[in-house]
Each structure stands twice: as C-alpha cells, then as structure tokens.
Amino acid sequence: MKKKNILFLCTGNACRSQMAEGFARALRDDVLVAYSAGVEKHGLDPRAVAVMAEAGVDISGQTSKLVEELPNVAFDYVVTLCGAAHDQCPFFPGPVKKVHVGFDDPPALAVGAASEEEALSHYRRVRDAIRDFVGGLPDNLDAADGNSA
C-alpha cells in the first residue's frame, strides 16, 4: 500500500502543526508521509518541543517553514489546524482532500498563565488532543467532508 502524503497547516508552523507532524511520524509512519507548514513562519516553539519530548516524540530537529518551502509533493490530505490557516489556505492542485480540524492555540492560552507549569498544562492538553486525532489517521479524514477546508 502506498503511503499517503499529509500536510498539517497552521498560522506560524510553530506549535500545533509541528506537534501533528511529529505524532504522524511517530504513530502513523506505516501509512502516512507527514509534512507541516505555516502561512507565516514563527519559529519552533520551545514549549511545544518540551511537551512533545514528555510524550516520547522528538520534534527538536523540525523547522518552521512556509508552504512554498516544501518540496514539490502531491498531497493527498491538507489539514488546517487553526482558523487563520483555514481562511488563508493556499490552492493545492490535484485531487487533494482539504479538511479543517481546529485546535486551541497553546501560546495564546499560556499568555495569562501564573506559572510555567500552568503554561505547559495548556500545551499538554492540546498535545494530547492532537495525538488522539493523529492516531485515527487517515480513517478519520476519509470519513470527513472533503470540502470543509
């Protein structure tokens, strides 16, 4: 069976899309080739790296990048993970299935945190939700409405 190419897209390719790419490589490498990008570049979020390491997934070598910087890949799936990426999703030629699955933005949630532990708790909650979503790939995308992104 040929692996499916999947792109996780969020605003800055700093946190959510990086987590999704890391989990896809760790959990679904048998059926997916995972990529991530942003509509902007914000750099890799150190807290995202830390909470992913807690979950046994090393994303420290991943880099924040724009869609234009990806290799020329025919994506089977493009998954937008936030509203900005959904609204600004670029055109992808071919029979790509675009799906929007929004997750809270950990850096935004952590802004008002009283401590680093409280800030990390937001990252962990979103990390776990992304892990649950990615664990069901690609079946949960095949069941989704392909016109939702």
Kindly list the characteristics that best describe this protein:
149 residues, alpha/beta, Rossmann fold, four-stranded parallel sheet
Description:
The structure is a single chain. By secondary structure, the chain is an alpha/beta fold. It has a single domain (4-142), classed as 3-Layer(aba) Sandwich (Rossmann fold), CATH 3.40.50. 37% of the residues lie in helices and 15% in strands. The chain contains six helices and four strands. It has helices at residues 16-27, 46-54, 83-87, 106-110, 116-135, 139-142; strands at residues 4-10, 32-38, 77-80, 97-100. It has a four-stranded parallel β-sheet with strand order 2-1-3-4. Strand 3, helix 3 (83-87) and strand 4 form a beta-alpha-beta unit. It is globular, with a radius of gyration of 14 Å.
